[in-house]
Specification:
By secondary structure, this protein is α/β, with parallel strands linked by helices. Helices cover 33% and strands 21% of the residues. It starts with 5 loop residues before the first strand and ends with a helix.
């Protein structure tokens, strides 16, 4: 397969000021076969409301019923939700600057 599916996994908690930029930076990458999965760890701010407003078939969002903590939230993303052959983590308060990052990273991975 020329472009294996890549899962970009974002665990977030109370990052309403940044989460939209993180997601749109992932969606803006020059990679044709990706999914963005966001797991909100019961944020007490408006982070999940922002997630619900994003309309893109490549994005799946989940909200934990209770706060399970950073490590378990990452574990849930990786072992329960990711569908890609390659997995990349992105923090909810970070974003990609290089639009070719995944193209180059997957080539190195191969």
């Amino acid at each position: 397969m020329k472009h294996p599916k890549v899962s970009i996994l974002i665990a977030t908690y109370n990052q309403e000021a940044y989460i939209k930029d993180a997601i749109y930076s992932a969606l803006g990458l020059n990679y044709p076969n990706l999914e963005v999965i966001v797991s909100d760890d019961s944020s007490t701010d408006n982070a999940f409301d922002i997630l619900r407003d994003i309309r893109d078939d490549r994005v799946r969002t989940y909200r934990n019923k209770r706060n399970i903590g950073r490590i378990l939230n990452h574990r849930k993303l990786l072992y329960e939700l990711a569908r890609g052959e390659v997995v990349v983590f992105l923090d909810g308060d970070d974003f990609y600057l290089d639009k070719d990052f995944l193209l180059e990273a997957v080539e190195l991975f191969k």
